[in-house]
């Protein structure tokens, strides 16, 4: 027997003096109200109502129990209200700026269906780690070497000019004597990729194949980096999905085919870890631009 629901029926019938009216107020069929009150009477071993063909009145036993039943119903309603508020309290999570907005919206919608009201905060790698450390957010998708992460996002070079080859070799950007005075093509990194496990291998490769230091640069924003690639022959380091969003043509880096972003979802408290387990790894992977094979970690 659900004692709260039984007491709810008892209170409604007791207040209205009618099984019909009480059941209507409690939004249950009259037969259900009768069964629940009968179950209470069996549990307590005494009648709660004097029943006749015309009226329903409380017994002395029923009058004694009615105030306690009301308090129990009120407490149950307060508990349900507080539980709903706790369920809908925003769960703040830091995500990369490069995440696809449509996929983020789908992640929020999926979270709500599972009782998690996500409040997503887009930030750069250092800011995400710091906001988690200071508990400004309850969870963060932190940048890690791809071998240490749950999600892996391969990186390549994208430009505004369509080409047939599937790979672009950094050595092809090396300036020759013939075009020494011409503008050298540059490779632009977004702030998201200004982390050691991405920036350092790329700059070392540039030096090894003879690129000038100024040919590998970090832009102030995604938009600034994309503008350089769209408005010139420069190239943007990005994922294939991001290149598609920016209307750029993407190719692998011939000498660095394994260059990739790595991500791991980190929480500050163990209880938050349990809550984030409701999120689908595949849905998060789509936000990051991870290929299907790298979304199930």
UniProtKB/TrEMBL annotation:
Residues 1-59 form the HTH lysR-type domain. Keywords: Activator, DNA-binding, Transcription, Transcription regulation. It comes from the Bacteria. It holds the Pfam family HTH_1. Belongs to the LysR transcriptional regulatory family. This is LysR family transcriptional regulator. It comes from Nocardia iowensis. The lineage of its organism: Bacteria, Bacillati, Actinomycetota, Actinomycetes, Mycobacteriales.
């Amino acid at each position: 027997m659900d004692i709260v629901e039984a007491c709810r029926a008892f209170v409604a019938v007791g207040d209205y003096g009618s099984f019909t009216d009480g059941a209507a107020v409690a939004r249950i069929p009259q037969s259900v109200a009768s069964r629940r009150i009968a179950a209470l009477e069996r549990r307590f071993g005494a009648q709660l109502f004097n029943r006749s063909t015309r009226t329903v009145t409380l017994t002395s036993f029923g009058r004694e129990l009615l105030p306690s039943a009301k308090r129990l119903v009120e407490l149950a309603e307060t508990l349900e209200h507080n539980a709903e508020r706790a369920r809908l309290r925003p769960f703040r999570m830091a995500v990369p700026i490069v995440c696809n907005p449509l996929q983020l919206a789908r992640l929020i919608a999926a979270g709500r269906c599972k009782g998690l009201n996500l409040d997503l905060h887009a930030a750069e790698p250092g800011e995400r780690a710091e906001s988690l450390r200071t508990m400004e957010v309850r969870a963060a998708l932190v940048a890690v070497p791809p071998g240490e992460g749950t999600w892996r996002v391969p990186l390549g070079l994208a430009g505004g000019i369509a080409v047939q080859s599937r790979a672009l070799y950094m050595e092809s950007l090396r300036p020759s004597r013939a075009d020494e005075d011409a503008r050298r093509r540059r490779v632009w990194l977004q702030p998201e990729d200004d982390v050691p496990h991405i920036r350092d291998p790329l700059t070392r490769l540039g030096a090894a194949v003879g690129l000038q230091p100024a040919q590998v640069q970090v832009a102030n924003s995604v938009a600034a980096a994309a503008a350089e690639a769209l408005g010139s022959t420069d190239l943007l380091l990005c994922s294939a999905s991001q290149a598609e969003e920016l209307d750029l043509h993407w190719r692998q880096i011939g000498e660095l085919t394994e260059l990739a972003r790595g991500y791991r979802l980190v929480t500050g408290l163990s209880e938050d870890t349990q809550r984030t387990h409701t999120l689908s790894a595949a849905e998060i992977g789509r936000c990051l631009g991870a290929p299907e094979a790298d979304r199930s970690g």
